Automatic annotation (TrEMBL):
This is Glyoxalase-like domain-containing protein. InterPro entries: Glyas_Bleomycin-R_OHBP_Dase, Glyoxalase-like_dom. Residues 10-207 form the Glyoxalase-like domain. It comes from the Eukaryota. It comes from Thelephora terrestris. Pfam families: Glyoxalase_3.
Amino acid sequence: MAGAPSTSTLDHIVFLSPPGTLEETKRKFVGYGFDVIPGGRHSGGLSENLLIVIKDGVYLELIAFLHPIEHYPEGSEERSRRESNPWAHKLPGWIDYAFLGTSPTISKIINSRAEEEGSGVRYLAEVPGGRETTTGRVLKWLITGPDPTFAVDGAAKNGSLPFFCGDITPREWRVRAVPTERVDHPNGVAEVAHLVVLIPPKDLDEFERQLTSVVGFAPEAGPGDTRTWSLSTTTGSHSPRLILRTPQDGEEEIYVRKRRGCIYKVAFQLARAEGGFLSI
């Protein structure tokens, strides 16, 4: 679609902690050598987060629900909202990733592209979201995600397809509401190198078509069942790779069975003289 906004800018990657354990996850990521900064509580009051901002403009969102589902009385509004949250029943770990929504009509752009290509993916209409920071600033954005009735084998429900976050308030409020030195991490991480999404072999071809409609261009074919898209960042500093592939060993097969596909690993490029990667 000529002149359409980009649908391939990596915005953030989401890591889920068990309910009420956000501080434990903070200690874990500090142990990895990251500088973890305050986030806030999401609108609706069900979850809270912490942030890790990378120099390339991508950030990691460490998120946890305040309470397990059973905390809320059956039949209550809070119980209903908690149970219906798209992340309500996910296992802890990497659970989702977001692209930057640069237009309030990203869903229409993707859906039109998908219809032309016959890929079968469809995104829901944008809905408002937000968060109040620890300093009291109210952030607002628009969210769109894949319609689970059009996804491959539940892929929309497990974070294999990205959602989009488009800012109403300035993105700098959401991401860089702290001094820029907080992006200089003790571990030397400078940028997101790649994220790996695993998918069952039977779903690979169909899911590749759907993801192509979302990203807006076809991937590069790699060895075996590997497909790679080169994404952009808000700083334009480099191109993190989105790698789609099938399991290569028993451990990965178990991972896919438990999660029905999802983000498997995130790798970071180190800025030290010797280079190298940190993979989590």
